[in-house]
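Practice problem: predict the structure.
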Amino acid sequence: ALFLISSGDLVSMYLSIELQSFALYILASLYKEKYSSTSAGLKYFLLGGLSSCIILLGSGLIYFYTGLTNLESIYTLISVSNFNNISQGLILGLILIFIGFLFKVAAAPLHNWAPDVYDESPTIVTIWLTIMPKIAIFILLLDLFTGSTSWLNNLNLEYNFTQGYEIIKNLLLISSLFSLIIGTVVGLAQSKIKRLLAYSTISHVGFLLLALAINSEQSVESFIFYIIQYSITNLNTFLIILAIGYLNFHKKFNANKKGFRYGIYSDTNNIENLDIRFITELKGQFMHNPLLSISLAICLFSMAGIPPLIGFFSKQMVLYSAIQSGYYFMAIVAIIVSVISASYYLKIVRILFSSEDKSELKNDAYFPLNKNIPFVDIHDNYYVSYYVTSIHSFLISTLTLIILLFMLKPSLLLNSTQLLSLSLFNC
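Answer:
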């Protein structure tokens, strides 16, 4: 990811994205005995390979028409060239590169792989899939888009180059519109927690693409701020879900307490058995883990854009920059889908704070002391439990406080994003 962000050459860009993708393919299929994990890795590998082919094709076209791979040299060639065939090939290559990267960040309508891969991968791997690749790719897209735009604005070029810029801009806007609508509407019908969060991620990608397409100083600032808050909120949400899965794996064995989560075991000895898959598994968690439940509710409220949490200010900045630049239709659509998407976040919160039905506990109140049960060790008639480590707890606490208390000290983060946007936009 660091190589991808710092790459200034088409070859290094492609090698970096492939190096990052290969690592993610291996992580997605980490538990090879599990059918769902193998399926997720295979889907991710095949469709990720397709997107890489599109990126490679775009890079090859640019090299074919210009004979160069260094981005700075390509921009210099543009400034002194008057040949239409160079401009057409360069525009087509850039469009293909952008399409390939939109595929990799799961932007609609190129999003179909993401819900399946996120749901079937172990939660600890899904955390990486939803955050790290997207940060690197979006920063690279920002560099490509703002860099090419600044050269186009400073040079007296032919109509073809300006037309190519408009095509890429419209591509980002169309993908943003589809991502906002699909990520919200389809997310309403989900019953699995990671599939729902996958469609939530697609909706957030729509906001990021909208800020990227506007390409003003204010939109770049909102773009950087949105990436920061999205990373913090998404990371904290998955860490909490992971912690609840650990704590729910089992409790002390006696008749007065709930035992194992019913149906959580499979034929394999995978740690994936700790994962929470369905939203209904969160039912009544406030009674057992109140602090984790409150932290998860804060994260979901932030994703929904409820003030004064950090997610509200990120959406406000994107919408304000859209209105200031005259994108009224996109701003209205973004506001509507934000209100609609709040319903499925609130659905999770409602289940989280609802009381458990006593009849649901009869299936898993007792389990015999049997050493064949996966991941269970027996010591003095007690089950040895999985605990949330102190580092895990510290991360959840810190990230939750940042989300909750951002309003009290916003200047540090806002000033940092403003300086970054000024440096990027004025380079």
